[in-house]
Amino acid sequence: MTSPALARVVLALALFAPVAGSAQSGNDRNREREFQEAQSRIDTTFAFNRTGVVDLTQISGDVVVTSWDRAEARVRAYAERGRVRSSLSSSRLSLDIESVRGRVGDSRFEVTVPIGVRVIARSTSGDVSVRGTKGSVEATSTSGDVEVTDAADRIVIESVSGDVRASQLAGQVRSESVSGTIELRDVSGDVRAETTSGDVLLTRVVSRNVVTTTVSGELEYEGTIDASGRYEFHAHSGDIRLEIPETTSAQFTVETFSGSLDTEFALTLQPGQRSTSRPRRFEFTLGTGSARVTAESFSGDIVLVRQPRSGR
Fold it and tell me: Which own/partner contact pairs does 184-190 have at CB distance under 8 Å and 24+ positions apart?
C-alpha cells in the first residue's frame, strides 16, 4: 500500500518530467531557429550599368571588389551571425551588415562589377581590396589594410591602424593612415599622402602637385618634377629621399634641424646662407624652371638622388 507522502512524490515526478522535456526541446528549437535566422548568405548575378555605384559597408569582415568586362554584377556575401542587407538594382549595388542580438561574427563581401563603376568600400575591422575597376574609388578601413589597383578619377584610400598600398592610379589621389605605411606606385595625377607613425613611399609618380607628410616615418619620392609643379615633403623624425630626374628645373627650399643635406646634384647656395646654423636651411635652384620643391625634416637627413636618364 502506497503512503500519501510517497504518492505525492510520484505524482510530482510524473508531472515534472513532461514539462522539463518539453522545455528542453523548446530551448533547442529556439537555439536552432536563432542560428538559422542569424546566418545569412547572398550569391547572385544581375544586370548592372557601367556607370553604376557600388556601396559596401562591413563591420568585422573583409571587402573584395574585382572587375570584369560584362554589364553584370556578381555578389557573394556572407555573415556568420549578422544579417546581410542588400539593395540591388541596375544602377546601384548596396550591401551592409545588421547585427543580430548585438552579434555579427565573421563576414565577407566579394563583388565583381563592370569596369568603370564607382566604388565605395568600407570596413571597421577587416581588410579592403579594390582591383581593376578603372573608376572612382573610396576605400577605407579602421583597423585593416587597404589595397587599390587600377583606379581613376577621384581616389581616396584610408586606414587608421592598417597599411595602405595602391598602384596604377590616374587622377586625384588622397591617402591617409595614422599608424600604417602608405605605398603608392605608378601614379599619374595630384597626390596627397599623410601618415603619423608610418613611412610614405611614392614610386614612379608623374605629377604636378604632391604633398606628403609623416611624423615618425621615412619619406621617399621617385618621380618627375614638372616645370610648373609644386611639391612638399614634410617629416619630423625620419629621412626624406628624393630621386628625381637629372634634368630637373626647380627652386628648392630644404630645411632640417639636426639632420644633413646629401645631394648628387651640384648646388650653388644663395648668398648669405650658412649650413651650420640651426635650423639648417638651404635655398638653391636646379636648371631654370619655375617648379617649387620644399623638403623639411626636424631630425632626419634630406637626400637628393639623380635618376638615370632612361628612368621615369
Answer: 187/223
Residue written as cell 621615412?
218
CB 203 within 8 A of CB 222: yes
Q: What are phi and psi of 69, to 5 degrees?
A: -95, 60
The grid coordinates listed for 76 are 557573394
Alpha-carbon distances, residue 162 vs 89, 126, 128, 129 (angstroms): 33, 10, 10, 13
Q: Taking the model in full, what pTM does it have?
A: 0.82
Query: For residue 191, how many other CB atoms are within 10 A of its CB?
Result: 26
**Using one digit for the tens of pLDDT, what is the confidence trace for 1-34?**
444 444 443 333 333 344 444 455 677 676 445 4
Dist. CA 242–CA 305, nearest whole Å: 6
Q: Whole-angstrom Cα distance, residue 147 to residue 3?
A: 80
Rounded CA separation 136/154 (Å): 5
Task: Identify residue 121 by its one-letter amino acid code.
Answer: A
Residue 2: other Cβ atoms inside 10 A: 8
Strand-pair category, 280-286 with 250-256: antiparallel
* Phi, then psi, of 30 in degrees rounded to 5: -65, -45
